[in-house]
Specification:
By secondary structure, this protein is mainly α. Helices cover 71% and strands 0% of the residues.
C-alpha cells in the first residue's frame, strides 16, 4: 500500500505543477490547440469518440451506473469492494467540482478548434477523464485481481480499459477539453483511486491486517 501512496503522491505533484501553469495561463497552451487540431483532422473518429464519451455525458446517468454496479458488487458478496468503489466515485466527483470552481478555466471555443457540442461549466480538469479513470479504472483493478478467469472478467476488463484509454482522446477530439485538462485529470483520477480504492485490489487478508495494525 505504501507503494500505491507513493505513486499517488508523484501523480498529484505532477497534476499540481500543471494546475499552477494553468492558473497563470488560463488561455490554451500552444500544444493544447495543436493536439486537438491534429485529432480533428481524422473525421472517421467522430462516431467512436462520441460513443466513448456518452457514458459520462449525464450526471444522472453516471450516478445510476455507480449505484447499480456497486450494489451488484455488494449483492455478489463484494461489500467492502463495492463500498470502496462508491467512495472513489463520490470523492472524485466532489474533487473535480472543487477544482473547476478554483481554476475557472474556459472551455475550448470555435475560435481555436471545432466544438462538436458546446458544454457549459469550466474546463480544468476534465470531469469525464477523472470519473472514467477513478471509477472504471477501479472496476478494472477489481476484475483483474478478484474475479475468476472467464468471460465476465475478460469483458469487464476490456470495456473498462477501452473507456479509460480512449476518454481523454474523445474529450479533446470533441472540443470539450484541452490536452492539459485531460493530462491533469488522468493524474488526479489515478491518484485518488490509489489512495481511496485499496480494497478493490488488495486481498481480504491484507485488508484485515491493515485494519488490525491501525
Amino acid at each position: 500500500m505504501k507503494r500505491a501512496y507513493g505513486v499517488a503522491g508523484v501523480l498529484t505533484i505532477g497534476a499540481a505543477a500543471l494546475a499552477l501553469a494553468v492558473n497563470g495561463h488560463p488561455s490554451p497552451f500552444g500544444f493544447d490547440v495543436a493536439v486537438t487540431r491534429a485529432l480533428q483532422r481524422m473525421p472517421f473518429l467522430t462516431v467512436p469518440m462520441g460513443i466513448v464519451s456518452a457514458p459520462g455525458n449525464s450526471v444522472v446517468g453516471q450516478s445510476v451506473a455507480v449505484v447499480l454496479i456497486c450494489a451488484l458488487m455488494a449483492k455478489a458478496g463484494w461489500r467492502r469492494e463495492g463500498t470502496a468503489l462508491l467512495t472513489v466515485a463520490v470523492g472524485e466527483f466532489l474533487l473535480n467540482a472543487l477544482l473547476k470552481l478554483i481554476f475557472h478555466r474556459p472551455r475550448p471555443t470555435e475560435a481555436d478548434v471545432h466544438v462538436f457540442n458546446a458544454v457549459s461549466g469550466f474546463s480544468f480538469p476534465s470531469g469525464h477523464v477523472m470519473f472514467y479513470t477513478a471509477f472504471y479504472g477501479g472496476l478494472f483493478l477489481f476484475a483483474a485481481t478478484k474475479l475468476s478467469a472467464g468471460a465476465v472478467r475478460t469483458t469487464v476488463m476490456a470495456v473498462c480499459a477501452m473507456l479509460v484509454g480512449l476518454v481523454g482522446m474523445s474529450r479533446m477530439y470533441l472540443g470539450a477539453h484541452w490536452a492539459s485538462d485531460v493530462t491533469a485529470a488522468y493524474s488526479l483520477g489515478a491518484a485518488w483511486l490509489l489512495v481511496a480504492g485499496g480494497p478493490l485490489w488488495r486481498s481480504t487478508r491484507d485488508a484485515e491486517s491493515l485494519s488490525d495494525s491501525n
